Description:
Belongs to the parvalbumin family. InterPro entries: EF-hand-dom_pair, EF_Hand_1_Ca_BS, EF_hand_dom, Parvalbumin. The chain has helices spanning 9-18, 27-34, 41-51, 61-64, 80-90, 100-116; strands at residues 59-60, 97-98. By secondary structure, the protein is mainly α.
Amino acid sequence: MSITDILSPSDIAAALRDCQAPDSFSPKKFFQISGMSKKSSSQIKEIFRILDNDQSGFIEEDELKYFLQRFECGARVLTSSETKTLLAAADHDGDGKIGAEGINLFINTIMLLRMCCK
Length: 118
């Protein structure tokens, strides 16, 4: 399965255009523009699996640097501060990676965005 099976290519392109400049990435805004904030829990879990590049069951900081490239190959790498912000948003236990608990936190964050940003 590809990310474009879940998210619209035009929404992905718009989200990537919005954060082209270094240090302009906002997880909340990216999730909204890309359409992730409108997806079901099962769709979010599938997106998580796609983002878990090494299929370890965790998304580590090294993988997060390439977060935007998982949506489009030519996208830029996240800066160190952007990577840390994204990690902090979903690293439930502070171990430096997003795991099973983080999946739920990640999904809950998306759901909260859906409720507060309609």
